[in-house]
Structure formats: structure tokens, C-alpha cells
Amino acid sequence: MDIENDRVKAARALLSAIERGDGAALVHIYADEVVQIEHPNRLKPKGDRRGREAMLRDLDRGKQLLREQRYEVVSAVSDGDRVALQVVWTGVLAVPVATLAAGDAMRCQSAIFLRFQGDRVVEQSNYDCFEPF
Questions:
Q1: 36-73: per-residue pLDDT in tens?
Q2: Is residue 76 a contact partner of residue 85, using CB atoms and an 8 Å limit?
Q3: Of the candidates 85, 61, 117, 64, which has an alpha carbon nearest to the alpha carbon of residue 12?
């Protein structure tokens, strides 16, 4: 297996860990110094920039807001130390959000760009386009 395919596998493992709410698995995927940049979107109009500890706290908060979540990988491309993912995220809400009730599904089309150093993610950029709600 070549290193680019290994990085795509690691990117898929990252999404799977998020789906499961498995912070312990993410600690092994994200480098200590990882930075996530979330570009402005419906839920975060000003965007966000955070490190690993904040990302793990948000993962725990997500467990209170969502009954479940899943990522459908539409495409994955690797080039050197970078992986680009096109995904469809679906979250089943545990609480109401705007016009959606608890139990409703929220959907988002996303592009996620990861940069690796060795076998760990050091940078993540998300471009999230939520369906109307």
C-alpha cells in the first residue's frame, strides 16, 4: 500500500471516529498541534479556528445535540501530504434546531481538506454547506 492510500484510509478513520464520538481514536489521528479551520457557514457565520482540545470538547458537546451522525464519502483524493474529501454529513438531532425538531435529520454538503505530517493530521479545513433548516 502506498502512503497516499494510507492517508485516505486515515481520513476515513477520522470520519468514522467522529461518527462514533470516539475521542480516544481521534487523539491517535490528530497531532497534538492540529488546527482546524471551519470556514463561515449557517451554524458558525464567523467561522472558527480551534486546536485539538477544543475539537474534542466539541465532539462531546455534539453527543448532546445529536442522536447520531454519519459521513458519506462522495470522493477522496490524496496528493502528497494532503487529502481532499467531498462528503455528505447527516446528523439526527437530539434537540430542536431552528425549524427542525428532535429526531429530524440535518444535512450538509462538505469539502474537508486535511494536511498530514507523517501519519497524523496537523491541519483540517472545513467548508460546510448546510441544507436549509
A1: 999 999 999 999 999 999 999 999 999 999 999 999 99
A2: yes
A3: 85
What's the Cα-to-Cα distance from 68 to each of 2, 3, 80, 99, rounded to whole Å?
33, 31, 33, 19
CATH of residue 126: 3.10.450.50
Number of domains in the chain: 1
* Residue 131 binned pLDDT confidence (cut-offs 50, 70, 90): very high
Alpha-carbon span 56 to 51, nearest angstrom? 9
Residue 80: which region, alpha, beta or left (left: phi > 0; alpha: psi -120 to 50)?
A: left
Give dist(CA 87, CA 126) in Å, integer.
11
| Of 59, 51, 57, nearest in space to 34 by CA | 51
Burial (CB < 10 A; 0-12, 13-18, 19+), residue 56, is middle
pTM reported for the whole predicted model: 0.93
106 alpha-carbon distance from chain centroid: 15
Boundaries of domain holding 57: 3-130
